[in-house]
Amino acid sequence: MAFLKLSGIEAAYGASQALFGVDLELAEGEVVALMGRNGMGKTTTIRVTCGMLPARAGRIEFDGQDITRLPSHRVARMGVGLVPEGRRCFAPLTVEENLVAAARPGPWDFDAVSRLFPRLKERRDQRAVSLSGGEQQMLAIGRALMTNPRLLILDEATEGLAPVVRREIWAAIGTLRAETGLAILVVDKSLRELARVADRAVILERGATVWAGSMGKLERGVTDRYLGV
Ligand code: ATP
Hints:
alpha/beta; Rossmann fold; six-stranded mixed β-sheet; four-stranded antiparallel β-sheet; 9 helices; 10 strands; 35% helix; 27% strand; binds adenosine-5'-triphosphate
């Protein structure tokens, strides 16, 4: 049974429709890559999933429950942890304060996050605003983990980062996958890295799902057609 299931999702920003039929399934413990060119609806799909934008049509189920019309705080409380595009943290708060403010009971606490990202422990008393882009991204992921989610959603977690930092983020995602069995939905542009970490892919084109399948079946023809520039 699907842990997260989106069926026929449509959504709009005012009069401008952005999603025209998104279908997506993710099983427990699975890593799914949500792909598509710029502006094809990946972030909008995530917003609708997290209750930040209402679905105009379709249905979203999480862990067997209909969450289509739940507000975002209720979706979060059900165990959906979001690392939003743009790595938002509380700038005036320290690293530790940012993490503790997000905490909910479970195995992910300050020490566990510090093991995944030792850099955050080194910087624990530093204000978030003074961190590098990569460190802010680690903090954003750490904050989502502190909520002890059952599903982690990462929107462009490596965008705009230096290659060495990107590798650290991908290594952390690999660790999460291997050691925790956390279900992960990941949006990123790097096909090579996604191929390493994801079990399956869902591709969007103009706001609709056009391809879904296992990562191994993602052939050149498909990537050229839907992901090529
Ligand atoms: P990117 O990789 O560029 O982030 P994406 O696949 O995540 O792209 P979305 O950001 O979901 O795409 O955008 C889907 C469509 O919705 C686009 O046509 C975009 O212009 C439009 N859109 C996104 N955000 C808004 C907004 N706040 N108001 C109006 N239209 C929006």
